[in-house]
Design goal:
The structure is a homodimer. By secondary structure, chain A is mainly α. The first copy, chain A, has helices at about 10-25, 35-40, 45-50, 55-80, 85-90, 95-105, 110-135, 145-165, 175-195. In chain A, helix 4 packs antiparallel against helix 5 (about 85-90), helix 4 (about 55-80) runs parallel beside helix 7 and helix 6 packs across helix 7. The longest helix of chain A has 28 residues, at about 110-135. The first copy, chain A, starts with 9 loop residues before the first helix and ends in a 5-residue tail after the last helix. At the A-B interface, helix 6, helix 7, helix 8 and helix 9 of A face helix 6, helix 7, helix 8 and helix 9 of B. The structure holds a DNA duplex (18 and 18 nucleotides).
DNA sequence: GTCTATAGGCCGATAGAC
DNA sequence: GTCTATCGGCCTATAGAC
């Protein structure tokens, strides 16, 4: 059996990941350094390298942890009665700015780019699969609105809302939120009246 | 009269701005340093500070230059026969990734944030004013699709397309381009049949 | 306007003791 | 697993000569 020693490394790893996440959220990826992370965590900077290797490795480890949390929240949204609006709701939380920060990082770092690109595509594919069903129930032709387009639109609009809000630019944001909420509800209202009733098949 | 000496500074300033822009496009804002810029321009790094002051001042000067170019291109698009589709066309050019890079920079730099936020809002307001007319001509109720929402959607979708393309993630991009192109053309076809014909008023 | 020189600082990463 | 010590490097910015 594994006797949990007081410091077997997993606690330290968590401290380091938490510190990295906080700096990245507050000041952006460019402010992340082994020294700043260590200071934030109350550790020595060498421990960052001991536990994670290079800084890129640290970024990747943090991304994987965040992705896991996100996938669980997404799963709950997509398996709810209103997958479209529920995904929208969790997508416009300030938390999403964190995703954009990783994308900004990945665009210019070869070592993490591929993994984040694949993760992005995979998430979109999952959403599209669920949305395809919802759109079908709503009697919306996939020619008129492909499910993958709906997934893209939700990602693009929510990311831009959150990023611009962080920037302090919110021109038109209220109108956008109202517009999208209404449109997505129209889809799900239609899906409910047609699809959910087992008799209608 | 101002006798144009061989080096009155304006040529050097252009060299420095060009070098900064190239590094920012190729490697992102985090790769911009006075030394890297000077190396790219074939100059000494001290000249960067002599001509622009701090690095934030340099970023702002570059932003202002890019904004000016962008406003001219936008003006041409918005005064064309098809302002909506023309704006979409120039928005999805790879050049737009440059804008996203500035936004990513501004989110975490107080000194440049306000100016870029104001610029972002101002651009959107201009677009909305032109679109309001186009939507009116197309007999689209502003309750159904507010002009500012259309401007936001174009900005959000184009930025996300360009950023994800740079990331190497292009899941659903072709479908999105086809979908948006069609929708925007529907608006402008309707505007043409109703609005442009002077007899219809 | 451009040069040399330099102050003062943060960075990633490794070696070796415990 | 955590410590001390340290290498080599890049950074912003300024001072002062020309």
């Amino acid at each position: 059996m594994k006797t949990a020693h007081r410091s077997d490394g997993t606690a330290t790893r968590k401290l380091i990941l938490d510190a990295t996440e906080k700096i990245m959220r507050d000041e952006g990826y460019a402010a992340v350094s082994s020294r700043r992370v260590a200071e934030q965590a109350g550790l020595k900077s060498q421990l960052v390298h001991y536990h994670f290797g290079t800084m890129d490795d640290l970024f990747l480890a943090l991304y994987r942890r965040s992705e896991e949390e996100w996938l669980q929240r997404q799963m709950r949204a997509l398996t709810s009665a209103n997958p479209v609006t529920e995904l929208w709701k969790i997508s416009i939380e300030p938390n999403s700015e964190f995703v954009s920060e990783f994308i900004a990082l990945a665009v210019h770092r070869e070592t993490v780019r591929e993994e984040i690109a694949r993760s992005n595509d995979r998430t979109r594919t999952i959403q599209a699969a669920v949305f395809a069903r919802a759109l079908e129930d709503a009697r919306i032709d996939s020619e008129d609105l492909p499910a993958e387009v709906l997934a893209f639109i939700i990602a693009a609009l929510s990311r831009t809302l959150v990023t611009e809000a962080a920037l302090g630019a919110s021109s038109g944001h209220d109108a956008v939120r109202a517009f999208i909420t209404r449109r997505l509800q129209q889809i799900e209202d239609a899906a409910r009246t047609h699809g959910d009733a087992l008799s209608a098949t």
